[in-house]
């Protein structure tokens, strides 16, 4: 699964990396950042949880 974050939409709430720390991390400004854009099967559920908890819907899974 491919994971991406729209940097213009992200407001830095931190829910993605709080809920799925193996998929997402924070950049220097506290906005979400994807650790590895290609997520393996073992992390798909975490990627979905992070995306579903984003208030701005800034995370795209494909």
Automatic annotation (TrEMBL):
Keywords: 3Fe-4S, Electron transport, Iron, Iron-sulfur, Metal-binding, Transport. SUPFAM superfamilies: 4Fe-4S ferredoxins (SSF54862). It comes from the Bacteria. InterPro entries: Fe-S_cluster_ET. It holds the Pfam family Fer4_15. One of its GO terms (molecular function) is metal ion binding. The keyword Cytoplasm does not apply. Its cofactor is [3Fe-4S] cluster. PANTHER family: FERREDOXIN (PTHR36923). This is Ferredoxin. It comes from Mycobacterium rhizamassiliense.
